[in-house]
Automatic annotation (TrEMBL):
It comes from the Eukaryota. GO terms for cellular component: nucleus. One of its GO terms (biological process) is dGTP catabolic process. Pfam families: HD (PF01966). Residues 62-212 form the HD domain. This is HD domain-containing protein.
Length: 463
């Protein structure tokens, strides 16, 4: 009898009460994936890392964001499936894209982007690694460790083909790199499926829709972009021989709002100078702790903080909890790392000396600053180049979007900026260089500020 009840429960959808999307109903296979240690790990990884130290509401985690992405992926595909039968979107397609949405962040490390953009590049310079690649590896690990091949077959998936498809969706190649059709999970006529979770063509995807809504909610900011309206006006059209997701012409201003939301979130929250200060401190603590932390992996092999990314059994143990492990340790080897984290707890943060606009590469600015120190220790400072943009560097991403009109829903074209508004931005990226000092005495801070004031104004600025 117990087995029968268990089987019934495994074949039922589950409803999640979410503060952003309301009641989310998910397919049993998605629930099965959620109920694994590999996915549950995401409960302990802050979505916005150090931003929580500035915005007290930003306590949300990768776990709930990932569930939201799976939900929105399903909403978009079901809408396209119902409106355009000729696309032949089947339940396998929908499930695979939803699974990719659910699993796209499995590879994030402690404090999210601090780990992959600050820590790993310094701990392992030149190492070819990204959180997307780690997500692909963790997805394989999740499937194998939890015996999900049979579950996939039970729900109508073809494990060998669909598993590959899901991993392709998590980290698709950039559009400009595509000459011949690069994918094996689905044929060219279903190219649009690769634009749902991670859209390399124009950056319009459900991942962004989800984190815009969730992050704004927890940051206490207004989100002026309505993804549910946009979904209703989404349509697949053939453009230059490729089936891609296009939008109704009247939605172009909604899309500009979407990209402005991204710009605004980066400027006000994601790249906040104090949030980044905290993340640089956590990065430095992790670097000092790196070789002194033993993390058990497959077959009992031992890894460090920076090498655990090579073994999923070890990597699953890396969450934000590493912070507390270091902070509460009594190990002599971890003393240096512990002292940095204790500074964070006392709010004795690295001080931002100031910023200036710059088009120079970070390495050049860093070299110039080190020269400007005149014998000072470069390790006492952090030089960072922050970029606020619409998602495609200095380019207007709307150039890469195609729009259909009411009279012709099957033909999509670019839209002229003048048709949208004469008040659209002329520039789509802003770059600023910041310099932080790690020194704490009033005398040192005063000297560092004077040094910055003679350095910053002398740098080449943006036009």
């Amino acid at each position: 009898m117990a087995d029968t009840v268990s089987e019934i429960m495994e074949n039922k959808n589950k409803v999640f009460n979410d503060p952003i999307h309301g009641n989310i109903e998910l397919h049993p296979i998605l629930v099965k994936i959620i109920d694994t240690p590999q996915f549950q790990r995401l409960r302990n990884i802050k979505q916005l890392g150090g931003v929580y130290y500035v915005y007290p509401g930003a306590s949300h985690n990768r776990f709930e964001h990932s569930i939201g992405v799976a939900y929105l992926a399903g909403e978009l595909l079901q809408t396209l499936k119902e409106k355009q039968r000729k696309l032949r979107i089947d339940e396998r397609d929908v499930l695979c894209v939803q699974i990719a949405g659910l699993c796209h962040d499995l590879g994030h490390g402690p404090f999210s982007h601090m780990f992959d953009l600050m820590f790993i590049p310094k701990a392992r310079p030149g190492y070819d690694w990204s959180h997307e690649k780690a997500s692909q590896n963790m997805f394989d690990h999740l499937v194998e460790e939890n015996g999900l091949i049979g579950v996939m077959e039970h729900h109508g998936l073809v494990p060998e083909e669909d598993r590959l498809f899901i991993k392709e969706l998590i980290d698709p190649p950039k559009v400009e790199e595509i000459t011949e059709w690069p994918h094996h999970g689905r044929p060219r006529e279903k190219a649009f499926l690769y634009e749902v979770v991670s859209n390399t063509r124009n950056k319009i995807d459900v991942d962004k829709w989800e984190y815009f809504a969730r992050d704004c909610h927890h940051l206490g900011m207004k989100n002026n972009f309505d993804c549910h309206r946009l979904i209703k006006f989404a349509r697949v059209c053939e453009v230059d021989g490729m089936m891609q997701i296009c939008y109704r012409d009247k939605e172009v201003f909604n899309l500009y709002n979407m990209f402005y939301t991204r710009f605004s979130l980066h400027k006000r929250a994601y790249q906040h100078k104090v949030a980044n200060s905290v993340e640089w401190m956590i990065r430095d603590a992790f670097l000092k702790a790196d070789k002194h932390m033993e993390i058990k992996g497959h077959d009992g092999k031992t890894f460090t903080l920076s090498t655990a990314i090579d073994d999923m059994v070890a990597y699953i143990k890396l969450t934000d909890a590493i912070f507390d492990q270091i902070l509460n340790s009594s190990s002599k080897e971890l003393r240096g790392a512990r002292e940095i984290l204790e500074r964070i707890m006392r709010r004795e943060l690295y001080v931002c000396l100031g910023d200036f606009s710059s088009q120079q590469p970070q390495a050049i600015i860093e070299a110039q600053w080190n020269k400007h120190l005149r014998g000072g220790n470069p390790d006492d400072y952090v030089v960072e180049l922050v970029k606020y943009n619409y998602g495609m560097g200095a380019e207007d991403p709307i150039k890469h979007v195609r729009f259909y009109n009411k009279q012709n829903t099957d033909e999509a074209r670019p839209i002229n900026r003048a048709q949208v508004s004469l008040l659209l931005p002329e520039h789509f990226e802003e770059k600023k260089c910041r310099i932080y000092t790690k020194r704490t005495s009033n005398e040192d801070l005063e000297a560092d500020r004077k040094m910055f004031n003679t350095f910053g104004p002398a740098q080449p600025h943006q036009a």
